[in-house]
Amino acid sequence: MASGTGTSGAEKKRATIWEVARLAGVSHQTVSRYLKNNGGMKPSTRAKIERAVAELNYRPNLIARSMRTQRSNRITIVLPELTNFVPVPMLKGASAAAHEAGYTTDVVGLEGGESGRAEGVLSLLETEQAEGVLSFAPLADLADRPEVGHKPIVVFGEYDDNLHARGELADGRPAEQIIRHLADLGHRRFLHVAGAQDWVSARNRRTVYVEAIAQLGLESYGIVDGDWTMRSGYEAARDLPADSGVTAVLAANDYVAMGVIRGFQDRGVRVPEDVSVFGWDNEEVSRYCLPTISTVHTDREALGRQGMLSLLALIRGEPQPDVNKSILFEVIPRGSSGPVAR
């Protein structure tokens, strides 16, 4: 009987960079360049190294690397004070990009507003525990602070102190795509049930809605000031006069859209046969309502990845990557919208 104190036969020694190089048929310097994500490598060479890494299940020894280079190989991601809401998709995208480049990530919630977070970031950098900082919340201006030193900071300010969306997340331009899509289906008279106006995203969607209606020569019956809730959507549909002529409603989010649909259904107004309804955010529930809700999907994971790639470029002294904003939003027509009734 085998002793319980020995090393299990199932355990394998960690693969080395030299073994990866030998299997890929390249030098260990080339593998090192690949792991550092340096440019100028032929696609065929990169593919060979990727296959070898996968076959050997190679993982860089970050502890040993940091001892050799006196670098922590850690990146700190900053949020406002952590609450019940955590932007998991954005963190997932940012962390994946960091890990692919050989870094580990720490997520911290810093309270105290912009100034308080700025001081917290400075303290983190002074401890030498981070190679750089990616903040999804605004920081007081650190550009002229000499104590920042050579450690890069990227402020990808997607949330305010209350974790309200801002920045790219609050882009209202998809509202124009929605209005154009509905106009192509024959709709000419619209209603917008807006979100709470202390949110940048709600204000941006409202502004773009007004501009799109004017630009396309359409009519807006009006704008109802909502508060992101199903109740506000329900009341807007319930109180809409029967002779309003509205055939399409742009709701601030999917929950407001659910309330609008229910409000119309309780009045005997059919969706989408009589009125089309569009939501926003692509909440999971929107796919299982009856009808399913037309909506806007925001690729938060891609947004987090873009923020991290910007920081990695600064750490490496490389040019900033191009940001493709067109991939961040997708208008998704579903069962709650259709051609105008004839």
Q: Helix/strand/pairing class, anyone?
A: alpha/beta
Helix-residue proportion = 25-40%
Portion of residues in beta strands equals 5-15%
* Strand arrangement in the largest pleated sheet: 2-1-3-4
In the CATH hierarchy, the architecture of the largest domain is: 3-Layer(aba) Sandwich
Could you list the spans in which at least 5 consecutive residues all have pLDDT below 50? 1-11, 62-70
Number of helices: 11
Task: Assign an overall shape.
Answer: elongated
Following the backbone from N to C, one meets helices and strands in this order, namely: HHHHEHEHEEHEHEHEHEEHE
The N- to C-terminal Cα distance equals: 83 Å
Compute the average pLDDT: 82
By DSSP, the count of extended strands is 10
CATH superfamily of the largest domain: Response regulator
Let me know the largest β-sheet. Answer: 4 strands, parallel
Q: Report the CATH topology name of the largest domain.
A: Rossmann fold
**How many structurally independent domains?**
3
By oligomeric state, this entry counts as single chain
CATH class of the largest domain: Alpha Beta
Rg result = 26 Å
